[in-house]
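A reminder from the course coordinator: this example appears on the midterm review sheet, so study it carefully.

Given structure:
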Protein backbone atom coordinates (compact mmCIF):
# COMPACT_ATOMS: atom_id res chain seq x y z
CA UNK A 1 0.00 0.00 0.00
CA UNK A 2 1.23 3.47 -0.88
CA UNK A 3 0.11 6.63 0.91
CA UNK A 4 0.48 9.73 -1.25
CA UNK A 5 -0.95 13.18 -1.84
CA UNK A 6 -4.31 13.09 -3.60
CA UNK A 7 -4.31 14.17 -7.24
CA UNK A 8 -7.15 15.42 -9.46
CA UNK A 9 -7.25 12.00 -11.15
CA UNK A 10 -8.29 10.54 -7.76
CA UNK A 11 -11.33 12.76 -7.25
CA UNK A 12 -14.05 10.48 -8.64
CA UNK A 13 -12.58 7.57 -6.71
CA UNK A 14 -12.45 9.62 -3.51
CA UNK A 15 -16.18 10.23 -3.81
CA UNK A 16 -16.78 6.52 -4.50
CA UNK A 17 -14.92 5.75 -1.27
CA UNK A 18 -16.62 8.43 0.83
CA UNK A 19 -20.19 8.20 -0.44
CA UNK A 20 -21.25 5.01 1.39
CA UNK A 21 -19.83 6.32 4.67
CA UNK A 22 -21.55 9.68 4.30
CA UNK A 23 -24.83 8.04 3.29
CA UNK A 24 -24.74 5.72 6.32
CA UNK A 25 -24.50 8.77 8.58
CA UNK A 26 -22.90 6.87 11.44
CA UNK A 27 -19.45 8.45 11.73
CA UNK A 28 -19.20 11.80 9.92
CA UNK A 29 -21.12 14.98 10.74
CA UNK A 30 -22.26 15.67 7.20
CA UNK A 31 -25.77 15.50 5.76
CA UNK A 32 -26.62 11.95 4.70
CA UNK A 33 -27.97 13.32 1.41
CA UNK A 34 -24.85 15.39 0.67
CA UNK A 35 -24.32 15.92 -3.05
CA UNK A 36 -21.29 14.43 -4.79
CA UNK A 37 -19.98 17.96 -5.40
CA UNK A 38 -20.31 18.94 -1.74
CA UNK A 39 -19.05 15.58 -0.54
CA UNK A 40 -15.90 15.93 -2.58
CA UNK A 41 -15.52 19.54 -1.46
CA UNK A 42 -15.55 18.30 2.16
CA UNK A 43 -12.29 16.45 1.51
CA UNK A 44 -10.75 19.01 -0.85
CA UNK A 45 -11.33 22.27 1.00
CA UNK A 46 -8.37 24.63 0.82
CA UNK A 47 -7.32 24.37 4.48
CA UNK A 48 -6.91 20.59 4.20
CA UNK A 49 -4.07 18.51 2.82
CA UNK A 50 -5.47 15.24 1.50
CA UNK A 51 -3.68 11.92 1.30
CA UNK A 52 -4.92 8.70 -0.27
CA UNK A 53 -3.95 5.09 0.36
CA UNK A 54 -3.63 3.14 -2.85
CA UNK A 55 -3.45 -0.63 -3.12
CA UNK A 56 -1.68 -1.23 -6.41
CA UNK A 57 -2.41 -4.95 -6.24
CA UNK A 58 -6.17 -4.41 -6.56
CA UNK A 59 -7.50 -5.29 -9.96
CA UNK A 60 -10.39 -2.81 -9.99
CA UNK A 61 -10.25 0.64 -11.55
CA UNK A 62 -10.45 2.25 -8.09
CA UNK A 63 -7.39 1.20 -6.16
CA UNK A 64 -8.02 3.63 -3.29
CA UNK A 65 -8.56 1.85 0.01
CA UNK A 66 -8.40 4.80 2.38
CA UNK A 67 -7.76 8.47 2.77
CA UNK A 68 -7.21 11.17 5.34
CA UNK A 69 -7.00 14.91 5.58
CA UNK A 70 -4.91 17.03 7.91
CA UNK A 71 -5.51 20.68 8.74
CA UNK A 72 -4.99 23.16 11.55
CA UNK A 73 -7.58 22.48 14.23
CA UNK A 74 -8.15 26.20 14.72
CA UNK A 75 -6.47 29.41 13.72
CA UNK A 76 -4.45 31.98 15.59
CA UNK A 77 -3.03 30.81 18.89
CA UNK A 78 -4.32 27.27 18.32
CA UNK A 79 -2.84 26.67 14.88
CA UNK A 80 -0.02 24.54 16.30
CA UNK A 81 -2.57 21.75 16.86
CA UNK A 82 -3.83 19.80 13.85
CA UNK A 83 -6.98 17.85 13.13
CA UNK A 84 -7.44 14.84 10.87
CA UNK A 85 -10.30 12.85 9.40
CA UNK A 86 -9.87 9.30 8.13
CA UNK A 87 -11.85 6.94 5.97
CA UNK A 88 -11.23 3.31 5.01
CA UNK A 89 -13.00 1.38 2.29
CA UNK A 90 -15.58 -0.85 4.02
CA UNK A 91 -14.35 -4.03 2.33
CA UNK A 92 -10.79 -3.30 3.52
CA UNK A 93 -11.52 -2.64 7.21
CA UNK A 94 -9.65 -4.75 9.71
CA UNK A 95 -6.52 -4.92 7.55
CA UNK A 96 -4.52 -2.22 9.32
CA UNK A 97 -5.14 0.54 6.78
CA UNK A 98 -6.49 3.03 9.31
CA UNK A 99 -3.49 2.39 11.55
CA UNK A 100 -1.14 3.06 8.63
CA UNK A 101 -3.04 6.24 7.74
CA UNK A 102 -2.87 7.42 11.35
CA UNK A 103 0.85 6.64 11.62
CA UNK A 104 1.45 8.54 8.38
CA UNK A 105 -0.56 11.52 9.63
CA UNK A 106 1.34 11.63 12.92
CA UNK A 107 4.67 11.66 11.08
CA UNK A 108 3.47 14.27 8.58
CA UNK A 109 2.09 16.43 11.40
CA UNK A 110 5.43 16.41 13.19
CA UNK A 111 7.22 17.28 9.94
CA UNK A 112 4.85 20.24 9.52
CA UNK A 113 5.67 21.49 13.01
CA UNK A 114 2.38 20.66 14.71
CA UNK A 115 2.73 20.07 18.43
CA UNK A 116 -0.44 18.09 18.93
CA UNK A 117 -3.26 16.32 17.11
CA UNK A 118 -6.88 16.64 18.18
CA UNK A 119 -9.95 14.77 17.02
CA UNK A 120 -13.00 16.90 17.77
CA UNK A 121 -15.84 14.43 17.21
CA UNK A 122 -15.11 10.72 17.55
CA UNK A 123 -18.51 9.09 17.70
CA UNK A 124 -18.70 6.88 20.80
CA UNK A 125 -20.49 4.09 18.94
CA UNK A 126 -17.59 3.83 16.47
CA UNK A 127 -15.84 1.36 18.77
CA UNK A 128 -13.20 0.34 16.22
CA UNK A 129 -12.07 3.94 15.78
CA UNK A 130 -12.06 4.68 19.52
CA UNK A 131 -10.01 1.53 20.14
CA UNK A 132 -7.54 2.28 17.35
CA UNK A 133 -7.01 5.92 18.27
CA UNK A 134 -6.32 4.92 21.88
CA UNK A 135 -3.93 2.22 20.66
CA UNK A 136 -2.19 4.90 18.55
CA UNK A 137 -1.61 7.03 21.67
CA UNK A 138 -4.67 9.28 21.81
CA UNK A 139 -6.47 10.01 25.07
CA UNK A 140 -10.13 10.83 25.49
CA UNK A 141 -9.95 14.31 26.97
CA UNK A 142 -13.65 15.11 26.87
CA UNK A 143 -17.07 13.65 26.29
CA UNK A 144 -19.73 15.61 24.44
CA UNK A 145 -23.04 14.16 25.65
CA UNK A 146 -25.65 13.34 23.01
CA UNK A 147 -24.15 15.59 20.31
CA UNK A 148 -24.41 13.17 17.39
CA UNK A 149 -27.72 12.03 15.94
CA UNK A 150 -26.95 8.45 14.93
CA UNK A 151 -29.51 7.25 12.35
CA UNK A 152 -30.06 3.88 14.03
CA UNK A 153 -29.66 4.74 17.69
CA UNK A 154 -30.52 8.40 18.16
CA UNK A 155 -28.42 10.82 20.14
CA UNK A 156 -25.05 9.40 21.13
CA UNK A 157 -21.97 10.84 22.80
CA UNK A 158 -18.85 11.89 20.97
CA UNK A 159 -15.31 12.13 22.28
CA UNK A 160 -12.63 14.74 21.94
CA UNK A 161 -9.34 12.88 21.64
CA UNK A 162 -5.83 14.32 21.82
CA UNK A 163 -2.19 13.38 21.46
CA UNK A 164 0.79 15.65 22.09
CA UNK A 165 3.41 15.37 19.35
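Designed residues:
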Amino acid sequence: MEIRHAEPADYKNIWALAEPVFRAGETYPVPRDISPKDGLAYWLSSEKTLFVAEDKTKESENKLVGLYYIKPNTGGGGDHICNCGYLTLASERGKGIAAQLCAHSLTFAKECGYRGMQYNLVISTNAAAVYLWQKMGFDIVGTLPGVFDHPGIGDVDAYVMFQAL
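The CA atoms of residues 10 and 133 lie 26 Å apart. Residues 2-164 form a domain with the Aminopeptidase fold (CATH 3.40.630.30).
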